Amino acid sequence: MRRNIVHSGADALIYEIRQIVAIGKKIEALGVTMTWENIGDPIQKGEKIAPWIKEIVKDLVEEDTSWGYTATQGDSHTRKFLAEKVNQRGGASITDEDIFFFNGLGDAVAKIFGFMRREARILGPSPAYSTLSSAEAAHSGYEHLTYDLLPEKGWMPDLEDIENKVKYNDSIAGILLINPDNPTGAVYPKSMMEEIVAICEKYDCMLICDETYAHVNYSDTGSIHLSEVIGDKVCGMALRSISKEFPWPGGRCGWIEVFNKKRDPNFERYIKSLLDAKMLEVCSTTLPQLSIPKVYSHPNFLNHLKERNEMFKERARIATSYFDNMKGVQVVEPKGAFYLTVYFPPGVLKNNMELPIQNKAVDDYIQSILTNASEDRRLVLYLLASTGICVVPLTSFCCDKHGFRVTLLETDTEKFHWVFKTLRDSIAKYLESGKS
Predict the structure, then answer these.
(1) For the whole model, what pTM was predicted?
(2) pLDDT tens digit string along 1-26?
(3) Residue in 218, 228, 201, 223 with CA at minimum distance from that of residue 89
(4) How far apart are CA 138 and CA 134, in angstroms?
(5) 67-296, which class in CATH?
(6) CATH level 3 topology of 10-47+302-433
(7) How far is CA 150 from CA 83, 161, 192, 336, in A?
């Protein structure tokens, strides 16, 4: 073409969680039965939607209003309902004007970074959820700026690393948290969040908290929302969704809660730009929005959350136990979300390690794509070819640490045990192969 039309950040748009499926599909076509542990879709893994939630949605479908537009920011009744929920927690208070609905949080993230000045950077965690890290990198045209999550400290943020990077890089306009965390399953205590708020206040930065898994939390402390710790001196926003807690991932319904919008004219103008962008597309999907007050206020909702959290807590315990006392492997038991990260300290994985692959065509294919693969991606490819289990390499989460993420979503108890026993046994064989 006469002009280059490719965005400078195009190469940063990497989503290995889905991209690895293409490799898995080729292996599947060659005769290997696949077990998909790459993506956090409870429905795909067999979770059944509670009948009372289905009834709410069925009733809404019968209402003609659920087929029309909502207000640009979202349904006014739903936004007022959610604002009241925030205010009931204590801490920062908001109104319905501080809530914006989007077609899923992927849409929200695209807007948040797409309408941010290019020179303004957001410091995020490493490992990082790919949607967030890729969007931040694409908007800036540079690699995503990150702070370390420390496996030896339960995947807690390195506060010294955060402060040093904010202090010495004045392009950083904000800090991003994911709580509960994806991919590690860590849950940040209130004191940790308060320290990060203090850093934001000290250096006049905003704070963004992805709370996708706020209600998928089986830690001892329970959910700590950004609204409870942000106070009145730091600008920020919480990112919320129904995808994982109803669960309704196909509903594509997410929203942001904006805090202290009027504290800073620059932040207020930025938030207005998000609303202006929303006006160009009229509104977000109506039906899921209308369901939120009805589901959240239903007498079965709290018990629904409790039962799911007890279920994931038990699965996290069982999955973690498979790696107990396993040399060369470090696994921190998740406390939230529904993922487990298997971490290999530096020097454990080597590029001479391998697993036996029975299918000759699959072996030939895998060997052809191993060139220049990172050590953990190499392991993941061998797991795919040898066992049919599809997990995601940790280095694809904007991270230089080696490992992989696997879900806790399998509903068939026997298969759940098979997955983690097979991973454990295969890892042991893989590590042993490097000694020969």
Answers:
(1) 0.93
(2) 655 645 555 544 444 556 788 899 99
(3) 228
(4) 6
(5) alpha beta
(6) Aspartate Aminotransferase, domain 1 (3.90.1150)
(7) 34, 11, 13, 17
